[in-house]
Amino acid sequence: MSVTALPKRFLALLLLSLFAASLSACGALPGKSDLEDKTVLTDQPVDKAQMLSMINAYRQQKGLPALRHDPELDVVSQKMARHIAERDSMDTWAHSAFGLSQRLDKAGYANYAGAENLGAGYADLAAAFRGWQGSEGHNKNLLNPYVTRVGIARTNRNNGKWRNFWVMTLSRPYADGRPTVR
After folding, report:
1. pLDDT(23) > 50
2. Residue-averaged pLDDT of the chain
3. Can you give the residue ranges of the SCP domain (predicted)?
4. In a domain, 29, yes or no
């Protein structure tokens, strides 16, 4: 081996080592997921007096009795609002008659009747309520003659498609007696 060949080989190995080191350093650079916002969910207060005023005025126009606010239903609603906000979607098995019944049972809320309205994207309570009134199924829940109590919740999401998630849970607990057939 000649003396002049050693420095060329050494130089080639040195360059190859530097190149390999520079490639491995790319792993230290932030990836796309590191640059994106992490999802943050924030439960938002809802004006319960405004909610009761809106729903009870609407029910009164239709000849139905007023509902009472129930903090236990707020808790059930908040859990569902977080559930759909985490998914950025209202498409979940939990949003079904069976799912609501199961969630009320899990909360220890014995009841004769229950209904639930979900909403996404609405900036405020009035908009969510108008959206529910304009939907046949949701409107039927607002005007359910068998329910006596209501709870509501809102969860915001900092990223994603919808950002605002609303849940209104309506029910008739055992304490309010069996519903009568209308």
Report:
1. no
2. 85
3. 52-168
4. no
